[in-house]
Structures are given as structure tokens and as C-alpha cells.
Write the C-alpha cells for this entry.
Amino acid sequence: MAKDHQLQTLSTLALRKRKLFLLKKLRFSPQLIRASVVERFTKCGKPNCRCLQGHLHGPFYYLTQCLGVGRMRKFLLKTPEAQLQAREAVKAFNEYYDQLELLSQINTELLDRGEKLGSST
């Protein structure tokens, strides 16, 4: 769910300044990924393994991505380097998405005030 930025209390000029700042700042990394890095611990099922007493195997790190209703892509991140890259790419996406969400809410507030969206100053 998106963060509500509570923009209704700002002046129209302040909204336009914030929008202009965002448009100048809005850059995205080509390495961004819309997904999650998930940590899992598992039981192997072997009858004499200590995982049956609660000492689970892991942690294992997976990249999981929802591709649509009932469609998931998930794979094991096998190396610490892959885990780091995945975390950084997910973080980059989330930061970019947050900026887009703020821009969307500014535009919505301006439109609600009867302002034109094409003007950013």
C-alpha cells in the first residue's frame, strides 16, 4: 500500500515546487527489480537429520516476483554476490516507486484543486 503524503495542507506553490524537484530527481537504476528477497529455512525429510528436532537447514535466499494472478517466479540466490545484487535491485525499485507515488499524489492534489498538470512551476 502506498504511503499517504498528506499533501492537502500544502500550498499550490509548495506542491509545484515539490513536483519540479521530483521531476529533476526522478532517475532510475537500470538494475532495478520489482520483487522481494525472501529468507527460508527448511526440513530435508531425512529420518535421522537434526532438522527434525528443530535445527532447520538454511538460511536460503530466494528472489520472488509476482507476474500476475497465480503466477510467481521464484529462484534461489546461490551466492552472497547474487543476494547483494538482488537486495540492491529491489531497494532501487522501491525507492523509484516511492518517488513515482509521491508525484502521482501531487498531481492528484493539483487536479483536485483545478490546476493544470502540464505546468510544473
About this structure: The radius of gyration is 22 Å. The chain has a mean pLDDT of 91. The longest strand covers residues 57-68.
